[in-house]
Design goal:
The strands form 6 sheets. Strands 12, 15, 18, 20, 23 and 24 form a 6-stranded antiparallel sheet that branches. Strands 3-2-1-4-5 form a 5-stranded parallel sheet, sandwiched between helices. Helices cover about 35% and strands about 25% of the residues. The longest helix has 19 residues. It is an alpha+beta fold. The chain folds into 3 domains: about 100 residues, 3-Layer(aba) Sandwich (Rossmann fold), CATH 3.40.50; about 80 residues, Dna Ligase, domain 1 (2-Layer Sandwich), CATH 3.30.1490.20; about 240 residues, D-amino Acid Aminotransferase, Chain A, domain 1, CATH 3.30.470. Strand 1, helix 1 and strand 2 form a beta-alpha-beta unit. It binds glycine. Glycine binds next to loops. The site of glycine has 6 residues, from loops.
Length: about 475
């Protein structure tokens, strides 16, 4: 490697950051040195880092101290998880150290409040919103008062709703009619479990259909839209079990998914552009730099609706995209900072991400007290066979003093298969998973043909009937 030297801060939580580091380290134009602020000693990050610091709570002040100590060697930083973004990591690091950050400012951490998102969408593209109502804790004096307000809203909108905390709770606390409750009394019990904890609650009309994930990098002036991906939130095959952070995801060899067509993709872009234009105003708003819109869409018989918006890359969705970037990722980052981002080209390849997770993740086992050692060496050994079309990204794993790596509590490690089509990519991803030695489990149907065909049929039915499917 003879390229220009560049120092990059990566704020890391999960496999997503390993994928970011991998993509940056493959730069042909730069020799990258990584300064990693990590939740734990992620073995991949430790191996690649010039300097690595563990900050378990990803506290912004501690991250800023790390940057300040190394600021002469760091050209810019990129933040992957939402917590530091919401807590203003960009504002603090940029003002105290002058190091440019790739992530939106605190003001544009859109996931900070679900209700504010809904009000913004209402202003820009109301057609993408479900019916919703916010129940602020401070507005009600007694349980009976809030109960009658909830009942009144359900009379108006029907019982088929989702009940969510207004503040981010990493997917926890979300209750859905039919899954978590089947009567109003049960729904209200769920509502109170959030409300009693001091959080405002939002009730939204339940949206049914086919999900897709929209991601776009932004330099403040324009969005560079990435290929569409499909996340699998449910723990078990055939979409059973509880919601998780995402058990895997797939991307087709074109910009949209097999159950969508170009017009579905254009509809999504149009909606996001409306929100972007509203926030950007005339010209440019560099506070939006980064990935201000990772949008989960639900394609219903009534068009595309927005499930939620985040101001950071999706995990696992970004792992589908970074391995197939045609453009140099370091150049893309510099362009975001300089305000001259252009279209991002990707190879016409399909990718499938499968996560291996601990035995007690997602309700698979109540408890697991066995050995948590995980050995990735056989999986890494496969990479040569697949000619670099298998990527392995450790997430909630820790390298300990004894030299071994151990699974922690969340999603342990993901494998990314890259292929000419989804079936080939899936085969490679699953082969990687099969070669991981450790007490872990995974979904076997990420990107499976029957799953995709089910999505295709549901989209067709939705379009014909004009009803939510
Ligand atoms: N894939 C879900 C998330 O990143 O929030």
């Amino acid at each position: 490697m003879t390229g220009e030297k560049v120092g990059i801060l990566v704020i890391s939580y999960g496999s997503r950051a390993a994928a970011v580091i991998d993509a940056l380290s493959r730069s042909e134009n730069y020799e990258v040195r990584f300064y990693v602020a990590d939740k734990q000693r992620n073995p991949f990050n430790v191996k690649h880092a010039e300097k690595h610091v563990v900050i378990p709570d990803l506290d912004v002040g501690k991250i800023c101290d790390f940057v300040a100590t190394n600021k002469n060697d760091i050209d810019f930083g990129i933040c992957c998880p939402e917590k530091p973004i919401i807590e203003g990591v960009r504002d603090v690091v940029e003002s105290k150290t002058g190091v440019a950050m790739i992530c939106p400012t605190k003001r544009y951490a859109i996931e900070e409040s679900k209700a504010s998102q809904r009000y913004l969408i209402e202003e820009c593209c109301a057609e993408a919103n479900p019916g919703f109502k916010l129940f602020p804790c401070a507005e009600y004096e007694s349980v009976s008062e809030v109960k009658s307000a909830v009942w009144e809203f359900l009379d108006e909108i029907g019982n088929e709703v989702a009940v969510k905390p207004d503040k981010p709770a990493a997917g926890k606390g979300v209750g859905v009619w039919g899954d978590h409750f089947t009567s109003r009394e049960q729904l209200f019990e769920h509502f109170m479990s959030i409300f009693d904890g001091g959080s405002d609650v939002i009730i939204e009309e339940k949206m049914e259909g086919e999900e897709s994930s929209f991601q776009a990098f932004c330099d403040g002036k324009r969005l560079a839209v990435l290929p569409e991906t499909r996340d699998y939130k449910r723990a078990f095959d055939v979409d059973l079990g509880q919601n998780t952070g995402g058990m895997g995801s797939y991307k087709d060899n074109k910009d949209w998914l097999p159950f969508m067509d170009k017009s579905d993709r254009e509809e999504e872009e149009k909606l996001v552009q409306k929100i972007f234009s509203r926030l950007r105003g005339n010209g440019s708003n560099e506070e939006l730099r980064g990935m201000p819109f990772y949008v989960a869409f639900m394609h219903t018989g009534e068009g595309a609706k927005i499930l939620e918006i985040n101001s950071r890359p999706g995990d696992p969705e970004i792992q589908n995209v970074l391995p197939v970037l045609k453009s140099d990722f370091v150049d893309i980052c510099f362009r975001m900072i300089e305000g001259n981002l252009s279209r991002i080209e990707c190879e016409e390849k399909a990718t499938v991400v499968t996560y291996a997770v601990p035995m007690d993740y997602g309700g698979y086992r109540e408890k697991f007290s066995g050995d948590k050692k995980v050995d990735l060496s056989s999986a890494y050994a496969l990479q040569e066979k697949y000619d670099d079309n298998l990527r392995i990204y450790p997430g909630s794993m820790e390298l300990r003093e004894d030299g071994y790596t151990y699974a922690l509590g969340s999603r342990t490690v993901c494998t990314v298969g890259i292929g000419e089509d989804i079936a080939e990519a899936r085969g490679i991803s699953l082969d990687g998973i099969r070669n991981i030695d450790g007490a872990l489990w995974n979904r076997g149907d990420i990107g499976a043909e029957y799953h995709i065909q089910r999505s295709v049929k549901r989209m067709q039915r939705g379009a014909v009937s004009g009803l939510a499917v």
